[in-house]
Amino acid sequence: MIEPVQLPDAAALGPALVLGLTALIVFVFDSVRPHEPDRGLLAGTTATGSLLALGVGVWYMIAGVGVPEPDGAGVISLFDGQLVVDQLALFFMLVTAIVTALVAIASYDYMDGHAHQGEYYSLVLLAATGMATMAAANSLVTVFLALELASLPSYALVAILKDNRGSVEAGLKYFLLGALSSAIFVYGISLVYGATGVLQLDLVAEAITGETGQHVLTGNAHDVAGHDGLLGVGIVLLLVGIAFKTASVPLHFWAPEAYEGAPAPIAAFLSSASKAAGFVIAIRVFTTAFPVEATAGLVGFDWSVAFAVLAVATMTIGNFAAAVQENVKRMLAYSSVGHAGYALIGLAGVGAGANELVLGAALMHLFVYAFMNTGAFLFVALAEYWGVGRTFADYNGLGRRAPIACVALTVFMFSLAGIPPLGGFLSKYLLFWGSLQAGMLFVAGALVVNSALSLYYYSRLVKAVWFEEPVTDHGSLAQPVGLYAALIAAAVMTVVVLPGFGPIADSALDAATAVLTS
């Protein structure tokens, strides 16, 4: 009888390792023929590596990796607890791999004729590796390192269209603001370390609650109560850094500039995968390191209330700003800000009861959002490929020339608005129900009002492509295989995710329960 192969613990990072290894393979392929890149080989390798990472992640979840024993294989701790692979980590690794695969497939056509093909796909994979590692980070140091691994390639990707002034300008602005937010974040880390003497998230929690963990007893003990002001300022600075990464109000102003100047597939990548990665570190850091009641009692600062205020402000300002845009890409950018507000409800509910339900609903929304938002930006990429302008009027009448693509766009718009029977409806409904269960009536009301407002501007785009007369004659429209394949795949998943929502909901609730009870 053949004994099963026992994989090393490091293999638990399989999805992130596959993405990183694929980036190195793309580097090698590009170095062989640097002046004559094989576009199909580079895009195909990137998509294959992303799908392989997705397959590994699904395999691990089915096998019970990250599920506490005896029900599963157990949560795997690596490098003395600096990285941890649990259901939350695997859930977000899947989201990252899905978006990366869709972007790689769409980029095959979109990047046709552009220089720096090898660099483009390598940077996408390196950014995805950083995002996947962010999901497993269990120390403020590894959180920061993974955050920078995701951010640095992203700055270059926004500015990769060297002949496009808007792309270069957007990349520079994104880099400068990102550097500032990173400085604020790392300063917050230093203050938390100064107050607690530890960086590992669970040990920070032990220091705050007064529990005596082994590492605290071996030379790192601190009188946290005597440094409560230091700790409070550190927590606020961490929140500021995370608010920038998730494009939350008032640190959202970089998003419309970056998304508008970036190649449309990169805008999809940043607004979906990067946003999800920002939320996973927010969830990991605040729910693990800063227990709500103990932290509020020590520093007089209830961070769940801060997230509730951020949620309402972000969804409201994002949706109102989106409603007045005439540029489709900027409308989607501000729409993504609004959806950041919806996801923030999950963290707001942690201190208000119904913890697992609200946080699990936020995870479900981010999963569905990966398909519908990526698909919406990929339609913009298709329009740019056709040479269509960026205003609503430029999209007039596209439904008559490209009905399949416009059906997909309609699916994305109505799902983003939360119209049944599409995936976005159920995730918003669960957020609403969870908010009511947690007693956050004002947040629930803001969610309903903002969803109704979003239907207005999403419907404007649907009306333009199907019912308005074209301003200009675009002639015959090409049907690029890669862009169409990614667009249709995202649309199909947006539709079928609702009848198949059971496993997704179970995984999200398991991930939320695991991180809240760890």
Structure description:
- The protein is mostly helical and 518 residues long.
- It has a domain of 201 residues.
- It has 21 helices and 2 strands.
- A two-stranded antiparallel ribbon has the order 1-2.
- Strand 1 and strand 2 form a beta hairpin.
- It is globular and about 70 Å long.
- Its main location: membrane.
- It is a multi-pass membrane protein.
- GO terms for molecular function: NADH dehydrogenase (ubiquinone) activity.
- This is Proton-translocating NADH-quinone oxidoreductase, chain N.
- Pfam families: Proton_antipo_M.
List keywords for this structure.
518 residues, two-stranded antiparallel sheet, 21 helices
How would the blueprint of this fold be written?
Elements: H1 14-32, H2 39-63, E1 76-78, E2 83-85, H3 87-110, H4 117-136, H5 140-158, H6 165-196, H7 201-209, H8 214-220, H9 228-245, H10 254-261, H11 264-289, H12 292-299, H13 303-323, H14 328-348, H15 355-386, H16 398-401, H17 403-417, H18 423-437, H19 441-467, H20 481-496, H21 501-517
Antiparallel strand pairs: 1-2
Helix pairs in contact: 1-2, 1-4, 2-3, 2-4, 3-4, 3-11, 3-15, 3-20, 3-21, 4-5, 4-11, 5-6, 5-11, 6-9, 6-10, 7-11, 9-11, 10-11, 10-14, 11-14, 11-15, 13-14, 13-19, 14-15, 14-19, 15-17, 15-18, 15-20, 15-21, 17-19, 17-20, 18-19
| Helix coverage percent | over 70%
Tally of helical runs: 21
Unreliable stretches (pLDDT < 50, length at least 5) are 211-220
Task: Write down how many β-strands occur, each being a DSSP E stretch of 2 or more residues.
Answer: 2
Structural class: mainly alpha
- Shape by Cα distribution: globular
Beta-strand proportion: under 5%
Mean pLDDT reading: 85
Order of helices and strands: HHEEHHHHHHHHHHHHHHHHHHH
Report strand order across the widest sheet.
1-2
Rounded Rg: 22 Å
Q: Could you describe the largest sheet, including whether it forms a barrel?
A: 2 strands, antiparallel
Give the N-to-C terminal Cα separation. 38 Å
Oligomer: single chain
